[in-house]
Each structure stands twice: as C-alpha cells, then as structure tokens.
Amino acid sequence: MKQKALEFLDENKEKLVRLVSDMVKIPSVSGDEAKLAAFLNEYCSELGFRCEIDRHGNFFAYIRGTKPGKRLIFNSHLDTVEAGDGWDEDPYSGRIEDDRIFGRGSTDCKAAIGAQIMAVLAVMHAGGDFAGEVCLMYPVEEEVQNVSRKGTYKSLMDGFRGDMAVNGEDTDLRLCLACEGMLEVKITTHGIGAHGATPYKGKNAIKMMCRVIDELENITPGVNKYTGSGSINPGVIAGGSRSSVVPDTCVLKCSRFTVPGETGRLFMDQIEAIFAKLKKEYPDFRAEAELTYDSNPSIVDENEAIVKAVVRAHEHIGKDCPLYGTPQHDDADFLTNIAHIPTVIYGPGTGFLAHMPNEYVLISETEEAAKVYALTILEALK
Ligand SMILES: [Zn+2]
C-alpha cells in the first residue's frame, strides 16, 4: 500500500505543482482568506473529502479510513503576510520555473497544504486502508499577532480535538519537536517634564528607560535542547516631544521568545524585580509593565507515536530525519497547550524565505513532503 501511494505521487507530480501554484495565485492575506477557503472547499469536495468551513472561516476536510481509530490532524494555515515591497515580479504570479514555485505564501505555507492534500489523495488511491481519520485543518489568521483571533485557537476553544497532529510549516523537511513562544511586554517609565535648560527640575523618563534596557540585558534567556536559546529584543521605543523638553514618559515594546518551561508570568516577575532594584537605587524611578502578547512554546516527547511515525516515514524514503526546534512561534502551541494533542512541526520550504520578497518553494521538497505525509498517515494510523 505504501508503494502504491508513493507511485501515485510520482505519477501526479504535476497535479501537486499546479495545486500549489493555483493557491499562490489566490491572495489570502490575514483577514482575507475566504476565497482560498472556497477554492479548497471545491477542490477537496471534488476529491471526495467531506469538507466544512466553520463560523470563523477555518477550512476542514475529513477523510476516513477503512477501520475506526484515532484522528490525525494535518494543520497549516490559509493566510499569509502582506506581499510588501521589493518583489521582482507579481507576488501572486504562482510562476513555475525549474524547481521553484514563486509567490507570497508559496513556502509559508501553501506548499505544505498542497502536499498534505496530495498525500491524503495518494493514500485513498492506494485503498485507504488505515484505522481512523485524517483531518485537514487550515485556519485563518495564523499570522496575526493576537492569540484570540487565531483560527486554530478559536477552533480549539470551540472544542475541536484530535489525537495527534502535524503542523505543516516551512521546516525544510526537518522534524521539528518544539517551537518557541512569543511574548510582548509594554514598559512605561514616568518622569516629570521640565524645560530642557533646567533639567534638574524634572525627571527624565528616557534616561530611566535606558536603565531598564541595561537591566533587561542581564536576564539570561532559557535554553532548550531543540530550540536552542530564547531571546529578548527591545524592539520599539518612543518618548519625549522635543529636544528642549525633559520627557515625562517613555514607552518600550520588548519581545521575548521563550523556550519550553518559560512563561509570560516568569518574564513579568523578572521585570518587576528590575523595577524593584531600580527603585532602590533611584528613589524617583517610576515604571509599569503590561504583558500585551502572551503565546507559549510547544514541545512533544520523542517517544510519541506521531514523532516515530514521521521518523519511520523518512526512513522509508531513504532520508535521515534530523530533529530540531524552531525559534518561530507556530500553532503547535495551541494544539499542545490547549488541547494536549502531541504535535510535530514539519513541512517543505525554508523559514528564511517566509515573509520575504521573491518568496519561493522548491518543487522537489514539496514532492518529498507529500511522500512523507502520506507515509506518516499509514504509519500513525496503522
Ligand atoms: Zn506559516
């Protein structure tokens, strides 16, 4: 059956390339995914999959095997970031040249979606003899920096569940067992305004913030075996109105990428400790902090069935399967932390091309991903 599925994929390479290219031609920037969802609804219905678009706009397709069993979720996302500037061509060309498909969303993540759909089709063509159900889950607004708007989060809060999941993201065909969480903290320092010629009459809020930033440097981010070290990035700063006035407020937005075990609460406690220290040193120091974005890291145990299934799938096509973690934040967070679904992240495409002009995905990698996804179904739902 494995052989039959792989042969089907070899015979239908062009169908996969066309599917990915056609999806790239449908712009689907976050908040504007309805057209792509409708396209997939029609495409997958014609293939015989039971399809649904839920009240949030998330697309689902369900494919049953011949026996009852577990539900394997193939998750990715419908949306992309904006095209942005710097393109050498139409960002939605879906142009195919040599081993590449060009366009916004090709690598992140329409190649993964195409490969997953073709993988299911191949397994069904080979007889569909597996135990349980595959669910394709393509949510809206994954790229939005607001947890409560993310489609995967919403569906899980509605009660959607499964037994194991593959989060299709651009991992270069490496098996990713962990992703970092992302936090954003807004820090405000409060001083006293005064004429710049008599600064001793005021308290300079920008200078206070400089001390906070110095102290942030002293926090050592956690380390994880797969993701490596977390990181802290003071990213946006604003304060003062003109150079001749002592600024009375300064605002800093600081992101932190967390490794498994680290939380938003931990970072806030560390910031409060910085404030307490600075208050001791400078009695006039006044500041407050607010956690404005709070998403968690994810991790899956190496012994989980879904991990073993992807590793075996790789072995079958004669490829070794490096295990790693990604510094990005992915929907694997919600699948593991809200629903406790063991989730790996795996797909074609390269992270450094995502969100960039002239984004493309390698066709050969996409074809290989389809094979690994197909074999994963047969391994995980034996
Ligand atoms: Zn993505």
Q: Count the E strands.
A: 20
CATH class of the largest domain: Alpha Beta
Which structural class do the helices and strands define?
alpha+beta
User: Which homologous superfamily in CATH is the superfamily of the largest domain?
Assistant: Zn peptidases
Give the rounded overall mean pLDDT: 96
Which residues form runs of ≥5 with pLDDT under 50?
none
Individual helix count: 10
* Percentage of residues in strands: 25-35%
Give the total of domains: 2
Strand line-up of the largest beta sheet: 1-2-6-3-7-19
Report, as a whole number of angstroms, the end-to-end distance.
12 Å
The ligands bound in this entry are:
zinc ion
Gross morphology: elongated
Taking all Cα atoms into account, the compactness measure Rg is 24 Å
Q: Can you walk me through this structure?
A:
With 382 residues, this protein is an alpha+beta fold. The chain has two domains: 262 residues, Aminopeptidase (3-Layer(aba) Sandwich); 114 residues, Alpha-Beta Plaits (2-Layer Sandwich), CATH 3.30.70. 34% of the residues lie in helices and 26% in strands. The protein has ten helices and 20 strands. Strands 1-2-6-3-7-19 form a six-stranded mixed sheet. A four-stranded antiparallel sheet has the order 13-15-9-16. Helix 1 runs antiparallel to helix 10, helix 2 packs antiparallel against helix 4 and helix 6 crosses helix 7. The radius of gyration is 24 Å and the shape is elongated. The structure holds zinc ion. The site of zinc ion has 4 residues, from helix 4.
